[in-house]
Amino acid sequence: MDTGTAYDLTLGEPLLDLAQVGRGTPYGEVLRRYWHPVAKVENATTRPIPVKILGEELILFRTRKGKVGLLHPRCIHRGASLFYGGVEDEGIRCCYHGWVFDPQGHCLEQPCEPELGLHRDRVRQPWYPVEERYGLLWAYLGDPAKKPLLPRYDTFENLADGEQLITDDSGVGGGGPALLDFNWLQHWENVLDPFHVPILHARFSGNQFTPEMALIPEVTYEYTERGVRSIQMRELGDGRSLRRVTEVMFPNMRVVASPKLSSGQTNMIGWVVPQDDTSFVIFTIARDTDPDFLRKLRSTHDGKSWASLTDEEHQRMPGDYEAQKSQGPISLHGEDHLTTTDQGVAMLRRMMAKQIRAVAQGGNPPGVIYDEADLVVPIEGGNYFEGDLVGASQTAQP
Amino acid sequence: MDTGTAYDLTLGEPLLDLAQVGRGTPYGEVLRRYWHPVAKVENATTRPIPVKILGEELILFRTRKGKVGLLHPRCIHRGASLFYGGVEDEGIRCCYHGWVFDPQGHCLEQPCEPELGLHRDRVRQPWYPVEERYGLLWAYLGDPAKKPLLPRYDTFENLADGEQLITDDSGVGGGGPALLDFNWLQHWENVLDPFHVPILHARFSGNQFTPEMALIPEVTYEYTERGVRSIQMRELGDGRSLRRVTEVMFPNMRVVASPKLSSGQTNMIGWVVPQDDTSFVIFTIARDTDPDFLRKLRSTHDGKSWASLTDEEHQRMPGDYEAQKSQGPISLHGEDHLTTTDQGVAMLRRMMAKQIRAVAQGGNPPGVIYDEADLVVPIEGGNYFEGDLVGASQTAQP
Amino acid sequence: MDTGTAYDLTLGEPLLDLAQVGRGTPYGEVLRRYWHPVAKVENATTRPIPVKILGEELILFRTRKGKVGLLHPRCIHRGASLFYGGVEDEGIRCCYHGWVFDPQGHCLEQPCEPELGLHRDRVRQPWYPVEERYGLLWAYLGDPAKKPLLPRYDTFENLADGEQLITDDSGVGGGGPALLDFNWLQHWENVLDPFHVPILHARFSGNQFTPEMALIPEVTYEYTERGVRSIQMRELGDGRSLRRVTEVMFPNMRVVASPKLSSGQTNMIGWVVPQDDTSFVIFTIARDTDPDFLRKLRSTHDGKSWASLTDEEHQRMPGDYEAQKSQGPISLHGEDHLTTTDQGVAMLRRMMAKQIRAVAQGGNPPGVIYDEADLVVPIEGGNYFEGDLVGASQTAQP
């Protein structure tokens, strides 16, 4: 008799506590304890744009005097969207009956009411605080009583002559659309999964990165003060070994050094920012002398860009996008069979569950900063080459 | 600490009792006490067309002998749609097994049954009564025991030489598609909202109408026998004042005189006809010597038609369509902050709630007519100029 | 007072017990007691393809050594889809971390694990058995303990010189897409509905078949060992009569002889294979000397193919697709008014309900074969001409 057929299959559940991002959801409340990038600085102008983050739809604009506002879109008066608002010196004017709100939601004017609104100070358009840093705009969507400082990162401080910060929000370097259409956690977990690299990115996709990345590494995982890291050792066969350190930092940061193996501390950090439970964007900041550094990192496949591949080529040369999206809109984590090589994923899930409990009990999750003395976060991720290069004839003897 | 942020936002609910239109819903049953326009007369032909109204899908056709039928689409025999039916002298024949139904749903023939159906008089295709008037076809979807007379309106009676009735079902004059894709009440309420005119239609959209309409009016509101009206006074600065009367009449009529300010009683009336809870059409009848009168009322924006505007231009020059649609598929009325200028909206909502109670208790809602003597409804809406025009030099002194 | 209007209409329910196909549904479990065609033989290659059947999504492929696999798409390791898998000699390799599964779901390799996975024999990718016959691939999705033999049909055995088997999965001959977008039962029931032929296929669609098929037949219905059949008698007016036998065989077979009236036992059989509750495909096998036999059966309408008709032409010349799809995504069977001419439909529904009870009680539904001696199923459907052709002058006298 046949065994193991799908006739008896019962499908496991997703870990919704970890995956969901909305207000009041377990991890959604952890995410709301941190600042998140919402747009590049240059995208906030006098033309309002819609922004979606953590399941919340908002309107972003910059007043004619230069202040950035991030407001609830539904005008508190009668509900027309501030997307159609007119931006003025001090705020944004609703198109329907002309109420004006400043970036903190104060109502400055009700033009059809007597004296422009005798009671206009009694209403408030819901808003969120926004700050600028490193070329991005950051918002805090959490409890005002717990608003932390907006962190700095040593990676991006003390630029040398000719260096600059570069920002990107165009998706996964290996391919896929700018707005990634599946649950963010599938991407974030992937950061602690070094073993997919030699399979997906070398064996399947024709070595997207470097020959060294095709080697199966020796990996150890460690909890850190701010998340989890993996240390991946590869013997390069030329007398050197490569120690590659990859970090995830709470609540959604990815510290992944260039897969093209530039040496030393990583020059870039990414933020995996959920729009809602089934879509996210990635904001990346890099420090380099070449303004095209991030653009040049994008993979090609048989010499073609991802967007120009046919369906058959997408199927034949899958990358992170295809693998992670095919896990489903929200992966059924309960179906996973985690093994020794999935230790990083397991550790991350445990730490997420632990922080959910900590936040629910009123504690602080890792890495929220309330003291200026702690403001600059040290970054350890990078590619570290060890040992001396030997001649090709000695390759076999480390 | 920040105050008024969206972190604590809890969203209010829509007033579904007023907004919903389906069979058995509170206002749906009020709507079903009246006749509604369903199509222009010329659209009922021997080619059946689908018609959707108050959440009900129906098939409209005209027999070869000229009678109009409005039938439930699902053939009572085996369920094929009468959309594919063949129209004959006396009725419509289902394509699947050939049953024939007349406009009252009587089954005239079952061609594959013995003697064309020995028991065909025991079945009935569900139907609704239809009447023609003023160039439109009107249907009554309510309790047959309470079917009122189909009203006449003084506006459209006793046409003078050269005058004609003109009909239109192509949407909002200011822009938008013919089928409006949001809840009908957002549009109907707008009729009692004179203050949006100087903001939305002048300040934002570049004065869609006339300079006079850009003035903020003095407004009073009154309950009438059949609904609510607003009386808007504008001092024109030339010695004259403009008294503009706008009416809503139950259950969904809009009596809005030309915003181009032709003088006297309005020459047009509109019906806001829900297809379902989130879409509606507007039927308008006008009386004029110019058959293009209604077409010429349609707004342009920087000289362009609405349909030819870019996304950026739609955002920059919003009109009724953009403002009302952006309130949501069904506006969250519970979120509104109504002020002195929203008195008309508040009065209308109260009167709707009152009529829901009246109908639920077996009473008649306003304006249903059972006596031929009451058949012609008087219309008061219009633009009334008062005072004498003075010379330009005296403009400042009314 | 008007009677019979739609105001009081309450809609009946679909017979979901008969219509639904998913795992655990009443008729879904009947369907799972049989083998079903899932693809043409030539469609299983080293490029995996998605297959959907009975509500289950699966991946079909053929190993480089020629074995066919039909696997659950979600890799049991971390959930990436095997659609992106690479097919090798013995199985398919997941793109994400490289686990390899054979067509029975055994895990052959876990390349990143020590020794390629010390415990890889403890996991199993869910799979279904597949067999090849008559140019199609057949899968069994049921309880392994009850797996029957894959039947043969006398129609397709002992091919003569020049004869061949022809397969088709491109939809209904009369028109419509290859993937039919409504409930499968609407199509299957239609097989036992001979009376729609003279109406839909002659009166409406301009005689899609032959003049003889436009005659309203005398019909008798009989239960058979494997389903229900209709015997349709038509006096041809030339001295001959036509006895046409049409069978449905459980659980979803259609035995319908050519409507172009080739004489004798039918040379083709169809399988109505649900993808899910609201879509299905039809697999047809025919035996003929002409490899284009099935293609040539497809109807034209005023000389045009179905796909090239305008919307107005589709409305004016409806066929099986339009009639059956217009019954709804799942027809509201409870609304039907079955009459004498619907006896075949009524008998089929009763027999389906009976088999649901039989299967639920552990019995075998009709036609499942466990004994090799019963393997070849006899087919009775066909067109049988009786009597002698007489001269045209004698036509009136049978």
From TrEMBL, chains A, B, C:
Swiss-Prot/TrEMBL keywords: 2Fe-2S, Dioxygenase, Iron, Iron-sulfur, Metal-binding, Oxidoreductase
Pfam families to which the protein is assigned, alphabetical: Rieske
Claim: Iron is one of the keywords in the record: yes
Lineage: Bacteria, Bacillati, Actinomycetota, Actinomycetes, Micrococcales
Keyword Metal-binding tagged: yes
Segments of this protein annotated with the region Disordered: 304-337
UniProt biased composition (Basic and acidic residues): 311-323
GO MF term (any one): dioxygenase activity
Signal sequence, renumbered to the chain: none
Organism whose genome encodes this protein: Leifsonia kafniensis
Domain Rieske, chain residue ranges per copy: 35-139
Protein name: Aromatic ring-hydroxylating dioxygenase subunit alpha
